[in-house]
Amino acid sequence: MAAALAYIALADLDRVSMLAYSDTVKDVLPLTRGKNRVLSVLRFLENLEPSGAETRLQAAATSLVHRATRSGLVIVLSDLYDQQGFREGLDLLRYRRFEPHVIQMHTAAEANPTWLGDIELEDSETGDRRKLTITERKLRQYKQLYQEFLESIDHYCRTYSLSCTRTTTDLPFDELILRMMRTAGMTA
Q1: Are 25 and 57 in contact (CB under 8 A)?
Q2: Could you read off the pLDDT of 92-134 as tens digits, one per residue?
Q3: Structural domains in the chain?
Q4: Under the phi-then-psi rule, with left for phi > 0, alpha for psi from -120 to 50, and beta for the rest, what region is 7?
């Protein structure tokens, strides 16, 4: 998804930079322009490795605002599962006159799990494991908390007039683009 969005921008002769982060900034693709630079974008993305750390959007936003020579559109592609909270990072971008567009990604199983019984869950970011017994009641509690999390994102974005697109990881790219355009009010 990041590669396709970067390609669209580069083909339109917009400047593109990428910042990969977890708890800290892991790698940066310096500002680049031109469709012929798409291979450097692909190499950058291909070389990224999961870090096994929690997400810290504020650390990434701080790094970005200190690196950038001027403000512009910032596409935040994330699940927004930040233990410190996603708001501080987005606030920093807004305060520094960047234009954040949030693309919140999750798997279908995260949004609507069907697990019941004894299971072992592994945090994909930290590697922490937990053995749990999932009952119908716990499943309802999870779904309620997950819905409240999504509503908090929607409320934050509406309050500050930020464009926010929610998608699952299996949604085809062209459908995501249409969803983004609808969110931005560009199509009927």
Answers
A1: no
A2: 999 999 999 999 998 888 888 988 999 998 877 777 899 999 9
A3: 2-114+161-183 (3.40.50.410)
A4: alpha
